[in-house]
Amino acid sequence: MNEEVSRKLELIRETLRENEAQGVRLRGTDWFAWATAGASNTVLLAAETGVAEVLVTTEDAWVLTDEIEAQRLIDEELPANFKVYVNPWADGAAARESFVRDVTGGGKTISDRPICNLEKPLPPTLQTHKRVMMSSELERYRQVGQKASFAMTEVLKAAKPTWTEYQLAGAGAEALWAKGLHPALTLVAGERRLPLYRHATATGEQIGRQAMLVFCARGYGLYANLTRFVCFSQLSGEQAELHRHVREVEAVVLNLCQPGTTLDKVYHALAQTYEQHGFPNAIREHHQGGTTGYLAREIVANPTTTDTLTEGIALAWNPSLPGAKVEDTFAILKDGKLENLTFDANFPNVEVEGRLRPVPLYN
């Protein structure tokens, strides 16, 4: 961990030199986790920023927080690479800003969430470093992916058609918490709502004969994204065909995910493949996913995203049709192969172009 953090501090200091800045401030939950090798500044799960921030200068690396949080962070979260500055919780903003001015000599600062007119945004080079996993990050990602997929299987095997969507979402959240993961997102659509909405937030309606459960599960700041279906009676031929179509659409996408491929190329391939399968409007009915990592989606692919895939980037595509979807989290490895970080051999699957892909679980 300390070696990983040391390398990241080097990258941040390269950014300081290249931008003639004296300090980098990282406030977001994503950037905090990245800089600290998986530590968390989160208390309120829904917040994009947390109870501490990272400040890096040419000489030192600090975590800035208040007196409520400091000891817990020192005891349970932070690697040894960081000093800690503690400000009073009641009137700490002025004290913290004064401290930053002192250690940066009042010079230029850059930030992931710049304060208007006072700070500049992070350059694209550092954004790129955040999106490319080091081997230690990938190892943590594997742990998160396995825990999330095991939680999903556990919950769907226990699900009942009489459960409400709230109950299924709650069971999902409970299973993730029990494995030490933040349930950043648990979408549920039961039988009636499944063909109507792509982003189906849970309701009090019974799920009925089938349901979709979607996880964005966060651990060490990294997001494992996956979608699964449970059925309590046989799918109709038309419903089964929709699932087959999305698996075949996804296969085209996954085959394209090689170092050097740009995201717009993947998007246009998706659009073309949907059309070939007889669904020309599907590309517009839901976003198709993209790169992932310290955000549920780091970059969502669209017709103009020219960002290039490289070794170490994580991906989560989610091609969908009304009532059908497929989604897992993959990483591009050194040999260009894709590793499915959220694969669970205990969940039903079929082989699609050499990859095992999930199919609805019959319960």
UniProtKB/TrEMBL annotation:
It comes from the Bacteria. InterPro entries: Creatinase/aminopeptidase-like, Pept_M24, Peptidase_M24B. Gene3D superfamilies: Creatinase/methionine aminopeptidase superfamily. Transmembrane segments: none annotated. Residues 139-332 form the Peptidase M24 domain. Pfam families: Peptidase_M24. This is M24 family metallopeptidase. It comes from Nostoc paludosum FACHB-159.
